[in-house]
Design a protein that fits this description.
The chain has about 200 residues and is α/β, with parallel strands linked by helices. It has a single domain, classed as Rossmann fold (3-Layer(aba) Sandwich). About 25% of the residues lie in helices and about 25% in strands. The chain is built from six helices and seven strands; from the N terminus they run ααββαββαβααββ. The protein has a seven-stranded mixed β-sheet with strand order 3-2-1-4-5-7-6. Helix 4 crosses helix 6. The two termini are about 20 Å apart.
Amino acid sequence: MNSDFPEHFFQRQDESPDQNFYSQPRFVTHIDDTTIRHLTAFYHDQIAPESRVLDLMSSWISHLPDEVDYSQVSGLGMNIAELEANPRLNDFCVQDLNITPTLPFADQSFDAILIAVSIQYLVKPVEVMTEINRCLTPGGQCIVAMSHRLFPTKAIHAFQVLTPSDRCQVVATYMEKSGLIGVEALDHSPTTGDPLWIVRGYCD
């Protein structure tokens, strides 16, 4: 599926195994506190209580609102220590999506699947989005949140050279190729703080 994109699009400065890069936990945030609050507010407004939620490419914080009860919050990430430290997760698994893009969940397992400030690291994004579509309930949503920070050696080339609007269009294309519908790009940036761009699509 990567053949649909320009040559070198998914190349990275560091092509060594990702599990080496993520072997040590990083208890840091990749957007500032103001932008985290904006993302949390978006989740509060857009994800219904009692939803089944998957935090994909998860870490030690999911940015979900503390006051909302969800029936299930699952996580999939690269570092077990980070996942164990995440208080919102009911369950989690460690998986490298760049090696195995197939998600270990049944069809229609989730009402919302989230990718927060991590989409730039996927080298098989359409395959992952196709799996997201499979795992969503009809009408369920995939929410991809992006900002301007990244690990430069592990981010794909496209995300290091494209403008924010072009990055949003790329993610929208991932979603459309996977079969998600109603795809929209939103600028949810605070007045001050890190920018926040959201691309969302729905399962048909």
